[in-house]
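Technical annex, item 7. During the second reporting period the consortium partners agreed on a shared format for inverse folding records so that results from different sites could be compared directly. Each record opens with the tokenized structure and is followed by the designed sequence. A conforming record, contributed by the partner at site C, is shown below for reference.
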């Protein structure tokens, strides 16, 4: 096909604002697996064949969201989905996967990922159409949707202060920040800043590489892990978050099998989440513990007796919903 034919073929065209053009180009280079067709100081463009897409990027910071719900890529099969997700994760870009979920009158397997400007992408493969929407009826008390997010990556400059007012953010993500070459006291200071800028009930997520024991000397790790300058012991971020005042702490990921072993230290991928305590004015949720034990107690000290309804705050209920024992509870709108 001639260059003119390629240039004039029918393609869907999307233009997005970005606060950091080079960072956005790096994200979409990984997402699409192609180099930008054009990349200048004030403009970049990707020409993608599958799907037939032109994506233009303009350096101009804007508030994410607005009329846009999300953008998406439908891939032909699970193998293609795994390949794109692998490519993103290998470059340190966190994704959230959903297996066999029913939504939009179809059954899909998908993952969600946000670009550096918080534009939400849904990447999925379609299994079959179904005769119902797949979405549960919305609860009487809906969870607040995160609108304001701040993210720090290992390759970013170390922040002495987060440039947001107290209680302004819904979520903070620290991608590899614990692997930067900083003293533990500076990590404590960063977590204190995160606590300050999060609203009551706000969420923090810490992602990085940890070891089962102190790492001797300076890490010299292979591949993408070569960016790692320091390997904390796997409990160190947990204790730092606890000191900062976060609760509901649990590991979304702490590899059962170590990624690799260096100098006698087993290295694992970790994703740790926690919440800033919420005020009493937050909506409540009735929670029923189903068993198998007679009763259990969560980190907030709330006792759940088998079969009895207990009213808890929304943020506390979310910690239970997203925790490893979620299938032991039933959640009722209060």
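Designed sequence (site C submission):
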């Amino acid at each position: 096909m001639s260059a003119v034919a390629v240039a004039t073929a029918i393609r869907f065209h999307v233009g997005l604002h970005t606060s950091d053009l080079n960072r956005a180009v790096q994200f979409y280079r990984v997402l699409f697996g192609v180099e930008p067709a054009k990349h200048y100081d004030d403009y970049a463009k990707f020409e993608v064949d599958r799907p037939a897409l032109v994506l233009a990027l303009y350096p101009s910071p804007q508030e994410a969201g607005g009329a846009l719900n999300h953008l998406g890529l439908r891939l032909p099969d699970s193998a293609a989905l795994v390949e794109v997700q692998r490519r993103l994760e290998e470059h340190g870009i966190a994704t959230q996967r959903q297996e066999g979920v029913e939504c939009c009158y179809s059954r899909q397997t998908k993952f969600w990922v946000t670009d550096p400007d918080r534009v939400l992408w849904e990447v999925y493969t379609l299994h079959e159409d179904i005769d119902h929407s797949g979405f549960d009826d919305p609860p009487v008390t809906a969870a607040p949707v995160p609108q304001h997010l701040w993210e720090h990556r290992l390759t970013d400059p170390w922040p002495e202060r987060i440039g947001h007012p107290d209680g302004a953010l819904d979520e903070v993500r620290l991608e590899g920040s614990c692997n930067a070459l900083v003293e533990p006291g500076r990590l404590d200071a960063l977590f204190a800043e995160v606590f300050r800028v999060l609203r009551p009930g706000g969420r923090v997520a810490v992602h990085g590489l940890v070891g089962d024991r102190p790492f001797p000397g300076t890490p010299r790790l292979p591949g993408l892990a070569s960016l790692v300058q320091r390997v904390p012991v796997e409990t160190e971020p947990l204790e730092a978050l606890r000191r900062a005042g976060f609760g509901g702490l649990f590991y979304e990921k702490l590899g059962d099998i170590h990624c690799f072993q260096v100098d006698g230290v087993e290295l694992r991928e970790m994703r740790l989440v926690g919440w800033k305590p919420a005020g009493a004015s937050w909506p409540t949720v009735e929670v029923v513990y189903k068993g198998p034990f007679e009763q259990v107690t969560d980190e907030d000290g709330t006792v759940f007796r088998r079969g009895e309804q207990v009213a808890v705050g929304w943020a506390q209920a979310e910690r239970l919903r997203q925790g490893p024992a979620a299938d032991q509870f039933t959640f009722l709108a209060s």
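The first helix runs from residue 3 to 8. The CA atoms of residues 178 and 187 lie 7 Å apart. All partners now use this format for quarterly exchanges.
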